[in-house]
Design goal:
Shape of chain A: globular
Order of helices and strands of chain B: HHHHHHHHHHH
Number of helices of chain B: 11
Structural class of chain A: mainly alpha
Largest interface: A-B, 45 and 38 residues
Number of strands of chain B: 0
Radius of gyration of chain B: 22 Å
Structural class of chain B: mainly alpha
Strand content of chain A: under 5%
Oligomer: heterodimer
Helix content of chain B: over 70%
Distance between the termini of chain A: 9 Å
Shape of chain B: elongated
Radius of gyration of chain A: 25 Å
Largest sheet of chain B: none
Strand content of chain B: under 5%
Number of helices of chain A: 13
Largest sheet of chain A: none
Order of helices and strands of chain A: HHHHHHHHHHHHH
Amino acid sequence: MMQFILQRALWGVLVVMSVVTLVFFLIFVAGDPAVTILGPQARAEQIADFKAKKGLDQPVPEQFLSYLGVMPCIRKDSPKYSSPDGVRGFCGLLQGDLGESYSHHESVANVIGYRLPRTLLLASLAVLFELVIGLTAGIIAALRRNRWSDTAIMFGTFIGISLPTYVTGPIALLLFAFLLGWFPYGGYGVDPLDHIYHALLPALILAIAGAATYARVMRGELIETLRHDHVRTAKAKGMPMPQVIRKHAIRNALLPIATLIGLSLPFLVGGAIITEKIFAWPGLGLLTIESIESLDAPVIMAVVLMFGIAVQVGNLLADIAVAALDPRIRLSD
Amino acid sequence: MDSRAFRRFRRNKGALVGLFLVIFVTALGLLGPWLAPYDPVEQFTDRLLLANGLPAGPGVEPGHWLGGDILARDELSRLLSGARVSMLVAYLATALAVLIGVALGLLSGYVGGRTDTYLMRLVDVVLSMPFLLIAIVMQRVFDAPGIWTICIVLGVLSWTTLARVTRAKTMEARELDYIQAARALGLRHFRILARHVLPNVVGPIIAIATIMVARMIIAESALSFLNLGVRPPTASWGSMLNESQSLLLGLPRLTVYPALLISMAVFGFNLFGEGLRDAFDPKD
């Protein structure tokens, strides 16, 4: 088990490193950050000045090595660039330094630290909705198999996975914000309770597809498990049905759900770009699209790094959760 | 598809509805631009623009059944010609993803060992790539208008599921007696893969590819919705949704039409794909 985790973690680090490398060079293929940040009206000396300050005038491979922290700092706006004795320090990933945002005039760590809790609030609410709605619907459908309530739920889940957020989002705004006035038009609110109130509608929209998926998986697994010998034994020895379902059937069915939650982790951490845009929710999704559009390299790198780590951690957690829930599975290579 | 699978499929009402919808939207994609009564980018400022600056509603002008859009272009013609773009991108991107995913999945599952390990890590790398950044990079590198770029971006980034499934099925098939026998006989590997392994994995691939078309329709519209898809004035369902977003509260119909078409297409491909999956791989 330990060896498996270590091996997977090592591969994970390699995968994240290759993604980081690829993306770093892609940014410079996409364009010149100095030009996109300063705008088309910027004068040549302004651009040259910006480039010198950020180390953008250096060759890209050198910028990359400096970004990683294996070569001395080349950013003149970093305190590590010069010291009294003239020895340049390091200011890269290895030193835990994510750099300064080009467009926010703030450290990347601050920018992320500001946005991440908001995305996490939205994401945790969405997961809560997904699980509560999805699992309930799935259990009901499985227990009332092939009756009309099952058919209705299954039809509903089909609609659910077929409606993209950019369709449901605007329609929900039209209905619940404009016509009924139950929810705000978007934004983040002013105090903690207000934040949650503002997050409800986008979280619901975000949860539709997930809830539909969980309901389908739950139904399938439950139907499968209810046929197993141990469930029949439990019924035969006179255990009341609700208890059989709770203790024996659902526990088994939770396995694939755990896997799915693990695999959805990166999308929760990475933020929901479209939903955040529709509801003007200032989270990581919105930051991602802003930074990519303006080629704010340090922010893009940080977001990509987080997303990549989340993919790896999510995969690993899913494997571990399955092993923990199913005593038959022993993790090995 | 063998006859049992075909019978199972025919008994599944949902799958038949799905098939019908798939045929319908595919026909829209094929014939749409010819069925369109007007040029989708022509502005009829004289007829479709009212005195208050808003476009004419459905049926106000004879011949313009769905009225005009924000820029006084014929809404129906835009929806019909947008169908071509949306369906073309969805099908082509899926084809590309199938090509890459099946080839790498077969290779990974059949050869195994180190090749398998490296290919599966490549899957991890692709899964961790930021979709939007790649889209923007491609848009800037190829200065060509959208459609082909979008197909390549979507295809190159979405073969991972297919590769994983093909790999798993190939590993199962590799152990079958007759394939072992073919290997023992010393048949060429390519021939074994094409003639003996591929037929074993093709069922689930078709099912996944069908559902993938639905995902591609969503992805194309999502890109257009974020202004990274086809460029104006070209119409696609996603770009129409994007253009109408700012007028959502004033002119909800301009949002509803493309939204309905996208949902219908996605719904159809999902139902059809799910029906195919059940037909190929019956659980009951």
